[in-house]
Amino acid sequence: MQRRPGFPARLDRPQAGAMTPTVPAARLARETQPPKPQGVGLDSAAVRARMVQRLAAAGIAAAPVLQAMGAVERHRFVDTALANQAYEDTSLPIGLGQTISKPSVVARMIELLLGAECARAGALGRVLEIGTGCGYQAAVLARLAREVYTIERLRALHEKAREHLRPLRLANVHLILGDGMLGYAAGAPYAGIISAAGGDSLPMQWCEQLAVGGRLVAPMAGADGRQLLLVVDKTLQGLKQSVLEAVHFVPLKSGVA
User: Fold this and answer.
1) Is 196 contained in some domain?
2) pTM for the complete prediction?
3) d(CA 216, CA 244)
4) Is residue 148 in a domain?
5) CA-to-CA distance for 112 and 117, rounded, in angstroms?
6) How much is the pLDDT for 121?
7) TM segments (predicted)?
């Protein structure tokens, strides 16, 4: 068997006096140009670029969010049978009654997170994600935050997320199996907390673990039972809440299963 070359591979140089073939300038220019994204396959950058264009047209304005959404390959986080729908603006089942959120919802919530006072002063610091799911949102957050702590209560999904994220080698993402309603005190305080599940009330632990100047973005059930997007800013004077548009997330539950 031939041994595969190590990296960087050694390139043999022509010996002194040896003649090298002449390459036409036009051909040389073509061969040295970086390849442009081509095709319509799921691995094509063009497919993700079209998704990003739709997000921008829908109102997502933060360039870092659009760049992160365009960089993470969403089809690698869903079942093969659903991969052809990965770049549509739709939620998809990931097993155990859970879903991967719409790209527009992921982008919207992360853009809101970047509006935190401590994020406006610089890069987003430490973030806590409630509900790892398949790991997609954690991968997007990893490109925008210094550290991401992501907690999942369902062991099977926790393991699935680990499998999805392992090839990406994201050293700033920490996967935790635990009860998301309790938050994760060991990583606190957090510049941002984002939840992928909606409850009837805001867990006090989340508010306690949020840093002053930090922001929490989560779905929350209103008086009529319908979920609304809630934004909570922690200031020196206390918590400031804003209620935004209607959303639909899986219910927030306690315990580990």
Assistant:
1) yes
2) 0.83
3) 13
4) yes
5) 11
6) 67
7) none
